């Protein structure tokens, strides 16, 4: 038991935090950002131990981005929003799709180059892919766009396979569950966006 915890204790603990995070995200609770600061800080160590250097670097970004996300949800405003209202859930404006796609491609390329050039990662293409798409996903989450769930579905599917391959079973199981919750979250946020539009 002690040996098992030594090998998988951090994986188990961050998995528990991940379940709490996705539940709070599904509920569109601002508390998700508080968990979002603690969990990735611990993930830096976990991923680094397993040679997922891109994910380790991404976890550092997640920690900082969670602070940004909290500030945006707490104090941010969208066009047409009431001054004292909470940041509403909306659909991502169509004019942002092309810039987001170009940013994703650039981020994928840069991350891939860094992994190949400066690390011994044996999964640089997929590691870079999930990191680049996560940049986009986290930004759309911070802006409370419904489409953030679509980005996370793709990230979660790829991460599930990647973590099984890299021997992080509990984290892999968590991301498999994320896929299901992201599909449900996509439907729930669509309804919440419609409700907010009908009752501003």
UniProtKB/TrEMBL annotation:
It is found in: Cell membrane. It is a multi-pass membrane protein. Keywords: Cell membrane, Membrane, Transmembrane, Transmembrane helix, Transport. InterPro entries: NMN_transpt_PnuC (IPR006419). The keyword Transport applies. One of its GO terms (molecular function) is nicotinamide riboside transmembrane transporter activity. GO terms for cellular component: plasma membrane. The chain crosses the membrane at residues 6-24, 31-48, 60-76, 96-115, 121-142, 149-166, 172-189. Required for nicotinamide riboside transport across the inner membrane. NCBIfam families: NMN_trans_PnuC (TIGR01528). Belongs to the nicotinamide ribonucleoside (NR) uptake permease (TC 4.B.1) family. PANTHER family: NICOTINAMIDE RIBOSIDE TRANSPORTER PNUC. This is Nicotinamide riboside transporter PnuC. It comes from Hoylesella saccharolytica F0055. The lineage of its organism: Bacteria, Pseudomonadati, Bacteroidota, Bacteroidia, Bacteroidales.
């Amino acid at each position: 038991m002690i040996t098992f915890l030594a090998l998988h204790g951090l994986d188990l603990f961050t998995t528990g935090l991940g379940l709490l995070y996705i539940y709070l995200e599904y509920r569109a609770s601002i508390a998700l950002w508080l968990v979002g600061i603690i969990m990735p800080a611990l993930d830096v160590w976990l991923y680094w131990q397993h040679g997922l250097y891109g994910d380790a670097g991404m976890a550092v970004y997640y920690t900082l981005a969670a602070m940004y996300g909290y500030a945006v949800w707490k104090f941010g405003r969208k066009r047409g929003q009431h001054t004292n209202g909470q940041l509403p859930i909306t659909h991502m404006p169509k004019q942002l799709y092309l810039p987001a796609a170009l940013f994703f491609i650039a981020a994928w390329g840069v991350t891939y180059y860094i992994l190949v050039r400066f690390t011994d990662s044996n999964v640089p293409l997929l590691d870079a892919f999930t990191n680049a798409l996560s940049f986009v996903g986290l930004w759309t989450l911070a802006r409370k766009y419904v489409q953030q769930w679509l980005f996370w579905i793709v990230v979660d599917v790829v991460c599930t396979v990647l973590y099984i391959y890299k021997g992080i079973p509990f984290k892999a199981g968590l991301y498999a569950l994320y896929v299901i919750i992201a599909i449900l979250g996509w439907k729930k946020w669509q309804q919440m966006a419609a409700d907010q539009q009908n009752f501003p």
